[in-house]
Amino acid sequence: MDKQEQELVSEVQKLFYNCQLNQCINVVNKLDIDRSFNCHKIMQYYRGLSLFENQETQKGYECFESVIDENQKQNQGKVNEVDVMIRVMYQLEMYYTNVQHAEKLNFNLEKVFQDYEAQHSSLPNYKKEIYLFGKGMFLFIENSREQNYIECTKLVEEAIELTQEYKQEMMIALGWMYYIYQKTDLSCKVHQQLYLINPRYPSLANNFAISLHEIGKNGKAEELFLEEEKLRNNNQISIQNIAQFYFSLENIHKEREYYEKLFSIVPKTARIYHKYGQYLIRIGQKEKGLSLLMQGLQIDPQYCPIYQDLSDIEYDNKNYVKAKEYIEKCIYQYPKDGYYMYRFAACLEALEKYQEAIEAYKQAIIQKNYLPYKIFSNAKLGMLHFKLNQHLKTLEEFLNTCNYKSVQSYQQKGNIIQACFFLNQQSKISLKDKLQQINKQNGYIVTRFEQFSIHVGDKNLSKLFLYRLDNLRAVLAIIAYQKYIESELIFQSQILHWDLFLN
């Protein structure tokens, strides 16, 4: 880029960072003519982000898809850091409103950051932070629903330390990652750091307020929500979040004020009809609320959250066939989504199609799903097998509910007590089968065997749980020895102290 283009890019970036979204869009629309391709991509990057933050979501999709398509045609597979940033932030914006769609397209992000590393890692222009940010976002989207708190945040933290150019984008992403992983204190810390750098970054005040509300700092959260409202007046996401905030505080007058403000926004989206319809149903105006949900589907016939609500309403009214039909609309769009499959399985179970429900619950566990619904699926399988007098399979599934990594302690205790209830059944499952089940357990469940030993009634089973736990501790001791101690046991002769070595 020449100097003039660099100045233009700087101007566009400042407009976005200053939350002057309409101005940013207008400048790009007016001046992105006959520019170098890299200048064009950067300008469209900030235009796309501005469209998303301005709640012009469909135009945001079109902007990013267009520039991605242009790059594929013009550069024939070659990518640079701008291409990675476009795909990363595209995925993040998508994740905010449609997790399933972000997961569905996540393979595109994986390809672009891998291509960037392959093409540039040996060149002077390689920016490691871009690769790290791309990989971190990919892993986050891939694993967040199952609460696999893996290396994604560390990768983004490292990227932030290495960069100045895209620091603010990386920080807003990291703050949201911590929030989703329920690391709310860390989320607040990152948001506070970004707030000190640039309090006007689009959606920062909103995201920061959500995190503060989560830890009970409602006074500061309210200040930030109202600050966001001033920055992005008539933004449907922020207005909806403020309404929800006042609902949680049981301030019915403020809640009504902001839901009515939400519904006054034009043009109306399916999301607006959905959220206002939900509100009306909750306050007893069911017929009007249902009418609004249907109007939302007229605007966007593929808007799954409305189908979910309609399915719930029909399920509560015991219209299970209709409930199943609505959730099938979601499965048609996302056939590999475990959450929708769980809801589908519940309809089949209610219709007493138990074998079909069992297969659907199994798919809900295998497919991408929110962690609680994977655990619920195991428990539902256990109860279905119990109804069918398949008691050993019942025990297997309740043991499976205890074999997940990230579970709230109170939930885990309940899962263990349920599993022990079936272990304590004397007549339904033989002692031999119980022993075999315990012996074949591997994974996180073994670390919880001390709790099993407390709640199980049979002393022999209790001893077996403790024996398995002792074996695990012994293995961990050997691993720790090899990793941390062995290298220190070298005498002056440089001879390893083999008599202490365990393999």
Automatic annotation (TrEMBL):
PANTHER family reported for this sequence: PROTEIN O-MANNOSYL-TRANSFERASE TMTC4 (PTHR44227:SF3), PTHR44227
UniProt name for this protein: Tetratricopeptide repeat protein
Coiled-coil spans in chain: none
Keywords: Repeat, TPR repeat
GO terms (BP aspect): endoplasmic reticulum unfolded protein response; protein O-linked glycosylation via mannose
Record's keyword annotation contains Repeat: yes
Claim: Cytoplasm is one of the keywords in the record: no
GO molecular function: mannosyltransferase activity
InterPro entries, per the entry: O-mannosyl-transferase_TMTC, TPR-like_helical_dom_sf, TPR_rpt
Gene3D superfamilies (alphabetical): Tetratricopeptide repeat domain
PROSITE patterns with a match to the protein in the record: TPR
Pfam family, one: TPR_8
GO CC terms: endoplasmic reticulum
